[in-house]
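Weekly modeling sync, notes
Attendees: S.R. (lead), two postdocs, one rotation student

Agenda item 3: backlog of single-chain predictions. S.R. asked that every request posted to the team notebook include the full sequence so nobody has to chase files. The rotation student volunteered to paste the first one in as an example of the format we agreed on. Action items at the bottom.

Example entry:
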Amino acid sequence: MAVVLIGTLDTKGREYAWLRERLTELGREVIVVDAGVGQESTGPVSDFGAPASASPEDVSNVRVAAAGGADLASLRAAGDRGAAVTVMGEGAAKVLAELHAEGRVDGVLAVGGSGGSSIAARAVRDLPIGLPKLIVSTMGSGDVSPYVGAKDVTIMYSVVDIAGINRVSRLILGNAVAAIAGMAAAWSASSPAAVPPGWSSSAAASKAGASAAAASSTGLSPEGEERPLVGASMFGVTTPAVDAARERLSELGYEVLVFHATGSGGQALEGLAASGLLAGVLDLTTTELADDLVGGVLSAGPDRLTAAGRHGVPQVVAPGALDMVNFGPLSTVPERFADRNLYVHNPTVTLMRTTTAEMAELGRRVAAKLAAATGPTALFVPLGGVSALDAPGLPFHDPKADDACFEALGDFPGTTRLDLHINDPEFGRAMADRLHDLIRGEG
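Predicted structure, as returned to the notebook:
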């Protein structure tokens, strides 16, 4: 397998030749993917100055553009840099997917400015979690969320521009080479076996049962044993519920991955649900939907709570923390919300109680998403409150608003309404047991 270098060779050819040479010295096979549009690379990518280091395995920018749905000459003639970056990013992603499907990738390295970083970020976005992805970028000291998204992309700040190999860039890029070579070697040696999509069937439950029997009192599986994975969503105000569910699922033989519902956490959960790695999803904390509806800072986007249903992954869902919208410090809350029920959670987080109308709309949105699910789905409704702040005597206790949500959820066939608070241990355990049943096919 090889380290794949993705870059714009029309502007960074000599830098990529240097990277290839350093990686080769460290014993790594290298494949270069040219995502530049300024000059055509029709044969093995030579970086326009170091043909001796080229490989017939390299991928030309002609092929990358075609994979992105465009003709390179036409793309170059149009002179639209933004469009070129988009096309070459999509094309590079398809090329990488092909190389990965052929078992030829054990790491990806890219270096560049904002354009090159954007191309690389799109290229690696669909690769599996765990496969090393490193981008050395001039943008690395600012907000890198557009490049990282919900994947395990490592960003290294270039300090100086990617413009030649000099005393400073040699140090930075040398560290990047050493880092990706080491990560690639570890990835290759570990031979990670992804949990197959078939885990969302009775096979996963059988595996879970066997794992449970062998698990220690700590909840850890025996060394070398892969337990089926369950993804769970959590917030500070739903932690007791998720802890109870996680403990129960561990007893049943699962390994639980917990995602903090901070926007990026929800996106990561959606991504894993779509990847085929999860046996099931315990989506107890759907609060990011409230931020998406009202305009809070922790939205995971409109596609939140759709991936499991779209891909047939068993899921159990609850309206956890739909009673709140998230903002930063109190001074950052938009003025239009000045008269709302605000709660300073800590100096950097202010929570706002959702209204009766908003809760009703959230109920409708959850119901619509669950109705569209193609796999086993269940809904649990905690009639005693949806978060730690939603209980008698606490700031967000509002039975009328909660009831509006519960009513809007409708009569979904897999609904269980419990006269419990969401953080009562019995609630989390009941959700865990139900998910186990769905995974076993006992819908």
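Discussion: group reviewed the output briefly. The first helix runs from residue 9 to 25.
Action items: rotation student to repeat for the remaining queue; S.R. to check formatting next week.
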